[in-house]
Amino acid sequence: MKNEQFDIETLKLISNKLDYIYSIAKANYNDNPELMDTIEHLARVGNMFANSKIQELKGHVETANPQGFILAKLANSYSRMKEYEKQKDSEFPPWEL
């Protein structure tokens, strides 16, 4: 028998917390659109992973192409973080001796 690192009840709890994070980010989008959009996408990635794992543990897979969904949502967050990093680097004054 395979030793599972996840159990269904804990995954449901994780999914519920990620749903909450997603809803807060969605409701407060106008406060800081780029940040809230990034948080929203990361919450959706985590939730998709949790739901896919729940389906796997139940032996009943319903979600088609969760990997593609996760990669697409991560791409958005990744590109926003890269842009943020570039912005921070350009704001730092050059060092001169």
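That was protein one. Protein two is written in the same sequence-then-structure order:
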Amino acid sequence: MASELIYRGHENENQPQATNFDLPKPSKPWLSITHFIRYILRENRLVFVLIGMAIATIFFTFLPSSSTTYPLHPYRNYESLSDSYFPSEKTQVTTRVNYNGFKANVNLGGKIPLGLKRKGLRIVVTGGAGFVGSHLVDRLMARGDSVIVVDNFFTGRKENVMHHFGNPRFELIRHDVVEPLLLEVDQIYHLACPASPVHYKFNPVKTIKTNVVGTLNMLGLAKRIGARFLLTSTSEVYGDPLQHPQVETYWGNVNPIGVRSCYDEGKRTAETLAMDYHRGADVEVRIARIFNTYGPRMCIDDGRVVSNFVAQALRKQPLTVYGDGKQTRSFQYVSDLVEGLMRLMEGEHVGPFNLGNPGEFTMLELAQVVQETIDPNAKIEFRQNTEDDPHKRKPDITKAKDLLGWKPTVPLRKGLPLMVADFRQRIFGDHQEGGSAS
């Protein structure tokens, strides 16, 4: 067979091809493409991956974009605080908030489409077991956020946040902010610092370290993780003011070597650090200057005038007025302050902002209001005034009204009874009268 095939091949070598079976096969150009693709798949996977990425890019480029606007990034500029809440229907939102017995309608503004839910943030509150901090934690938890409280319990009390124990969105860390701390959060509310004269004079070096080193540590954390940072400063940065009322552009009249300087100058330095991090490290900073605040959970014997008067009246002791009683203060209820802090954090303005009630009372007038609320027969006792005690204190809140849409809503005569109920329960253990306030 082999020789025959060879012979036939030679025999027909010069013969014309008679049938289609003897015609040469036509060229197939697609075979080269197939071979090329097989080569890529077999020998050069990187090229194949790049081609796939290019195809995916083209696909998503021409894909119609969605108009959905959630989840919101925590650092985008929102038009108002209202957008961070989640209503159950597409309508103008009004929610009812209970602040230890005081109920208020909070108009959240804005409209959120039906079925959309606000994405909860992860937030750390330093000093979150304290008076103001614990009320702020309550609001953030009610809003649906995950909250980490950092407190060394120098002035804070675990009882202030115990009602959140067991909630998977709540964490409590016993820690002093003077030492560095590593966390992953979206926002930082920095409230850690003793705020009453009795407490910050107890250890003035520790107080100024908390204000300076503690603030430095938390600003460094905000820089590393890209978190927005809110500093709670104080009206004490104005010292014994020569301008009345005080506006945010006033630089103050502070004694740098006085007994209150650890707090006053410490907060002024904290503001300096915050602005330097904002300008130099692009940290999103917010600064609030808090004026006198009162309400449930205040330390009973912290030396502040409202808590002093209330505790003394409940214990049937004379109300101690220092000096001639003509020095003035402005008192805001804690729920108003918390609302202002949250609006400031969610807004787009750095500050500083005065957060206080412009209603001005002399110490004698405050003592009379406490008498009316608790014991009309309470006596008033005058004592020598303390060093560096400011004579006048009243905030100008025009800036907060215009840029944050915030103003206090709880008058002293309405908020004070709520604080009295809480103090009565803690001093005498009267759970029936004070249970609702605590």
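The two ends are 110 Å apart (CA to CA). Keep this in mind for the problem set.
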